[in-house]
Specification:
Elements lengths: L34 H10 L4 H6 L11 H13 L5 H10 L1 H7 L7 H10 L3 H9 L1
C-alpha cells in the first residue's frame, strides 16, 4: 500500500520575527500643514442649514453624515477626483479621506452619486460656495 500524505506549506508564517506597528490614531499620520486640514477647517465654518433641510429626518439614518459626505466630495474635487467610483476607491485607500470620514464606513459609489444628484442641488451648492 502506498502512503499518500499531503504536505501543505503554511504561507502565513514568516521567517523573520518582527513586530508590526500600527498607529492607533490617524491624526498622527497627517502633517499639520496638509491641505486636508485646511479644507476641514474651512468646511467647519460653513452654515449647512440648506443642506440639512434638503435631507429628510424621516426614514433610516444615513450611512454617512451629509456634512461629512459634502466635505469628502469637495475635497475629492480639489484633488481632481470627480467620479463617484473614483471617490469610493480613494476613500478606501487614502489616509486623508479616511481622516475626513471620521470613523464612518466608506460610502458606496451609489451613495455618493445619489447624494450629489439628490441633495447637492444648484441652490444648495450656490449657497454653500457663496460662503
Amino acid at each position: 500500500m502506498i502512503n499518500k500524505q499531503i504536505i501543505q506549506f503554511n504561507y502565513t508564517q514568516t521567517s523573520a520575527n518582527y513586530q508590526l506597528y500600527l498607529p492607533m490614531d490617524v491624526e498622527e499620520m497627517i502633517p499639520l500643514d496638509d491641505s486636508v486640514r485646511l479644507h476641514y477647517l474651512l468646511c467647519e465654518r460653513m452654515d449647512y442649514r440648506e443642506l440639512l433641510q434638503a435631507t429628510s429626518p424621516k426614514g433610516r439614518k444615513p450611512a454617512v453624515d451629509p456634512v461629512i459626505l459634502f466635505k469628502v466630495i469637495t475635497y475629492a474635487a480639489s484633488q481632481k477626483i470627480y467620479s463617484s467610483r473614483g471617490i469610493e476607491k480613494t476613500c478606501h485607500r487614502d489616509i486623508n479621506f479616511r481622516w475626513l470620514l471620521q470613523g464612518y464606513a466608506t460610502p458606496d459609489h451609489a451613495t455618493i452619486s445619489r447624494f450629489k444628484q439628490k441633495y447637492l442641488t444648484d441652490t444648495v451648492m450656490e449657497q454653500l460656495f457663496f460662503q
